[in-house]
Structures are given as structure tokens and as C-alpha cells.
């Protein structure tokens, strides 16, 4: 049963991108992460090689690492599932994130890559409104359920496709149709460009508009209603607390849509 995935590590890194970049370099987090995971480095190198063949250049705010993590993530390796499994529980406590989450570098660059891509896509909209995408996601061997009218998050990085037939290739047991307003189209930095991939961040909130069971499987329709994060620049807080001897509490970010917290409180 889908819910708000409150154990997810859902940091949006709002207002602290530069400090985070400096902290990740100072703490040598990339080297620590590749040392702890054999597949990490080989996938990173594969992604770098794939980018050399890509005709797409970096956006203005992008570092090379933003492009590499997007390419690496869309390669659908075992690291993809390891990252998401870890992300879904790393927010259970600040201590768990600090001591047990071995994707701090990857999580930061993937989160901010989605935000940079999204900002650029929004800027191309003549209406001045945020660009929302109607996308699809197929899940194999899992019959996922949700209560109509409830608010949910995926609580992990979620790959979707603008093409229904592409989504079905990944599974038919559960099929999502999702309107995402925080997910970014990552086709230019995706290993499989034909998938027309849109990547949804862990912190986006959705209203369950419809849920049905069919002979083919479960069908869900989700509509974006904002965002919610328990954590705010947590690595910096952890670094400060390490130096001061205090444990930093998790912070809350207000959702972008007024009233979402009120709606959550009423449930």
C-alpha cells in the first residue's frame, strides 16, 4: 500500500548547493563511495564514456558529475536498485543517514541534476507555468495498491516514460499513469533515449486520483500536488554536529503547494 514514505531520505538541498559541493569534496565522499562498492566505479566510467558520444552539452548550472549520475542511473544497473533501496530507508533517522547511507555523493548530484533540468524545462514554457508531464510506469511482479484520495510519495528516484508502450515493457502487474510537475525529462542524458524518460524525485507528493484492479493487473492514476521533505541540507548539519558534538535534528521544508501540510494533518 503506497503512503508518504516517511523513512525516505528526501533532502532537496535547497539553498545549500554550493556548500554541499564543497563539503562533498572536502570529505572525499566520491572516493569513499566507490571504495565501498565495486560496481560504482565501473558504472561511473561507463557513463563517462557514454557521455563522450552524446551530442548534448551541459546546461549552465551543471557540473560534469550531474551528467554522469544521470547517465549512470538510466543504465539500469544493479546500482540503480541499490541506490533506491538505500534511499527509501536512509531517512529513518539522521544517524542512519550519517552512518549507513553510502550514496551521499550520488544522491546529491542526482537530486540537483533533476532540479537543474526541471528549471531549464520550465524556462522554455511560454505560459510561465511549471512544465508538467503525463507519464507512465510499469512494475513487474508487484501488485501495488493505494487509497483513492490519499497523498503518497514514491520516496525514491522513480523512472517513468512519456510512452505507454515503453512503460509496459517493464511490467504489467502494476501500471501507473502519473502527472508529475517536479519530474524532469532526462532524455538528453539518458542511456536509452527511446524510452523518453522522465525522472521523478523522492520528495514529490501525489494525490491518488484513481485505483483499480483489472485482469491484467493494478492500475493507478497519480496527480502531483506539491513536495515535502523531512531533511534539509542534512550532510552539512551532520558535519557541524560532528564538529560541535551535537546531533542535528531533521528539518522540514514547506510544500510548494499551500495547504498540503493541512491536508496531511487531516488524514
From TrEMBL:
Q: Which SUPFAM superfamilies match?
A: ADP-ribosylation
GO MF, one term, reads: nucleotidyltransferase activity
PROSITE patterns according to UniProt: ART, TR_MART
**EC code(s) of this entry:** 2.4.2.31
Q: Which GO terms describe its biological process?
A: response to antibiotic
**Transcription recorded as keyword:** no
User: Is Ribonucleoprotein among this UniProt entry's keywords?
Assistant: no
Domain of life of the organism encoding this protein: Eukaryota
- Read off the InterPro entries from this record: ADP-ribosyltransferase_ARG, ART
The record's listing under Pfam families reads: ART
Reaction(s) the record says it catalyses: L-arginyl-[protein] + NAD(+) = N(omega)-(ADP-D-ribosyl)-L-arginyl-[protein] + nicotinamide + H(+)
Can you cite an annotated GO cellular component?
cytolytic granule
Q: Which UniProt keywords apply?
A: Disulfide bond, Glycosyltransferase, NAD, NADP, Nucleotidyltransferase, Signal, Transferase
Q: Where do the coiled-coil regions begin and end?
A: none
Q: Which family does it belong to?
A: Belongs to the Arg-specific ADP-ribosyltransferase family.
This one is known as: NAD(P)(+)--arginine ADP-ribosyltransferase
Question: What species was this sequence derived from?
Answer: Nothocercus julius
Amino acid at each position: 500500500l503506497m503512503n508518504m514514505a516517511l523513512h525516505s531520505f528526501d533532502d532537496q538541498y535547497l539553498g545549500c548547493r554550493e556548500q554541499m559541493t564543497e563539503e562533498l569534496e572536502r570529505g572525499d565522499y566520491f572516493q569513499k563511495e566507490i571504495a565501498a562498492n565495486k560496481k560504482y566505479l565501473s558504472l561511473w566510467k561507463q557513463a563517462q564514456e557514454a557521455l563522450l558520444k552524446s551530442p548534448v552539452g551541459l546546461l549552465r548550472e551543471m557540473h560534469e558529475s550531474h551528467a554522469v549520475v544521470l547517465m549512470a542511473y538510466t543504465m539500469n544497473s544493479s546500482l540503480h536498485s541499490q541506490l533506491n533501496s538505500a534511499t527509501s530507508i536512509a531517512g529513518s533517522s539522521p544517524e542512519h543517514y550519517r552512518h549507513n547511507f553510502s550514496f551521499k555523493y550520488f544522491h546529491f548530484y542526482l537530486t540537483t541534476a533533476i532540479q537543474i533540468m526541471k528549471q531549464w524545462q520550465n524556462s522554455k514554457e511560454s505560459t510561465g507555468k511549471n512544465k508538467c508531464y503525463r507519464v507512465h510506469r510499469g512494475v513487474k511482479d508487484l501488485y501495488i495498491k493505494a487509497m483513492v484520495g490519499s497523498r503518497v510519495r514514491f520516496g525514491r528516484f522513480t523512472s517513468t516514460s512519456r510512452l505507454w508502450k515503453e512503460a509496459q515493457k517493464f511490467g504489467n502487474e502494476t501500471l501507473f499513469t502519473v502527472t508529475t510537475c517536479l519530474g524532469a525529462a532526462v532524455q538528453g542524458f539518458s542511456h536509452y533515449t527511446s524510452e523518453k524518460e522522465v525522472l521523478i524525485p523522492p520528495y514529490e507528493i501525489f494525490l491518488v486520483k484513481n485505483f483499480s484492479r483489472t485482469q491484467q493487473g493494478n492500475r493507478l492514476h497519480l496527480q502531483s500536488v506539491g513536495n515535502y521533505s523531512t531533511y534539509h541540507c542534512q550532510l552539512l548539519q551532520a558535519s557541524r554536529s560532528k564538529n560541535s558534538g551535537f546531533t542535528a535534528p531533521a528539518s522540514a521544508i514547506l510544500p510548494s503547494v499551500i495547504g498540503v501540510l493541512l491536508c496531511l494533518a487531516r488524514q
